[in-house]
Design brief:
The structure holds two protein chains of two kinds. Chain A is α/β, with parallel strands linked by helices. Helix content of chain A is about 30%, strand content about 30%. In chain A, helix 2 packs across helix 6 and helix 4 packs across helix 5. Chain B is α/β, with parallel strands linked by helices. Chain B is globular and about 60 Å long. Chain B starts with about 25 loop residues before the first strand and ends with a helix. In chain B, helix 3 packs across helix 4 and helix 5 packs parallel to helix 9. Classes of the chains: A alpha/beta, B alpha/beta.
Amino acid sequence: MKVFAIITATPVDRVRVVGGQLDFGAAGKIDPTSRAALVLALGLSDDVTALAVTGLHSDDALHETLAYGAKRAIAIDNVNAAKINDALAEARLLNQAIHELAGDEAAVVFCGTGDDSLSPGVSNPVGAALAGLSGQEYIGGTTSVKANGANLDITASNDKSMLTITAPANKALVLGVSDPAIGEHTLPWAGSIINAYREGKVETMSVGIKEIEPKLTLNQLAPAPKREGPELLTESPAEAAAALVEMLRSRALI
Amino acid sequence: MDYWGSDTGWSMGSSEPAASSGGGVLAIVFGDYLNAGKALLASAHQLTDELGASVNAALFDGDEAAGDELVKAGAHSVYLITSDSDSLMAGYPEAIVTLAAQLLPAAILLTSGRQGDELAGLLAGRLGGTLVVGANALSVDYSDQSLIASQPVYGGAAIASWKLAGKPQIVTLRPGTASPMLDESRRGKAEAFSFTMPASPLQVSKSNSPAPTQELNHASVIVAGGYGAGEDGFKLIGELAALLGGTVGATKSAVREGWAAPAQQIGMLGATVKPRLYIAIGISGTPEHLMGIAEGATIVALNSDPKAPIFALADYGIVGDLHETLPAFITRLKKTQ
């Protein structure tokens, strides 16, 4: 079994608009659900490879994984993810990298599904896309993974109930992790930090895919329009309540 | 896998379902979230009306009456599918891949959220094509019949507009992107659709532990109270949250007064939340509290002070006495459910 953690980076400071231009800040960090995915992976194995497709602040996040205890941190540099933002293209690169690194061993891949740096409130679909195109089982909402002899005992949430899953340990799997609270209080331990400082190095890797043709073209990237202020409902309480219910229903928010 | 041997465009030229020659839009709808499904159909119609392409819906765990509602909301055909509750993701991917192989849709739409975005990712991997998640606007480039999807990026600081190539074009739309339409005169058909679950080496069972969906950082609807709500107000807040299937949150001041538990605190020293709907009751809107609300939520504020800072962030506001407005809101919700 070979264990991987797919890492997404997020800027340390909130991205701002300064003088009409986007300011991405000077540094990045590991996305909270990617950290949760890494913590779960490290709980399963002490030989975890962290992978990221080269993009905005990706090296900063990969350095952090070494401090947490990842054995290797690899940036896939075929295409810069910040320029393409194509989840499928990213998944293809990751799939090829895992295929090359895992060899004959079954790969268990942990992937955070939050994406603080991109569209807010939206789940990162890269892990699920990776499972889809590689033909592997995908378990979303993973909360714990434990080795149990020849099996893995996994718990996951599907938003309605908790599931218990038993999987053969020699079966390739992709595990989506959506709870940033997992590992929230796990700090890198001193030994890992020292090793990362002394020997840690983010490796780069070009996978054996001749051409990745992104199918998304960026038409426009513009600062978000400034909020004009709220729409105020000023009628009597009963009328305001009725208008509010109508508005929320019409926008499918309730 | 490549179900699309030749280019399937949008044009159908008739109101007949797309089964024989492909094209059109397939909307994925879940029975528990019918309103969101109707909004998806409205978005689909905005794309296809001028091209005469068909709009079909896959409805999971809904009955014929729900199917009829989707027809009136814009679907030409509704495929009624019973999910497999003992399987991972309830068999949704297998069902949709099987249906898509028959219909060959040019586009597949889902509602954005954890379930929708992950399902869209799986489908994109299995079917090929292109994928954008969390879009808040959708249009068509008629020169080559490609979708153009806009999404907030970088924490909401910017809006990116993408042109999709290839087929199918899979997009998840944020709730509230379109308003459901209703045309009582519409006729269509709803038929059962069955699929076969492939054998899996995984053993899946439901655990006795409850899902953490009602924890703050998972909740999609939050009703939060501040110092202005008072102890009595929090009783109404709890009732409203239960009615909306949401969770109760609170400011530091309210927690300090003992009206809410520390685990319900939102803000700098509490939870950071990413709901799709945040209703703030008697909350003034201090920066320490507001930093706990991620960008992208629709915020409704109710406060007696028209100058409360919360109104600068809110999408909708009511200036008034919560002891009059909240009961009216609750009564109206119950009456219209």
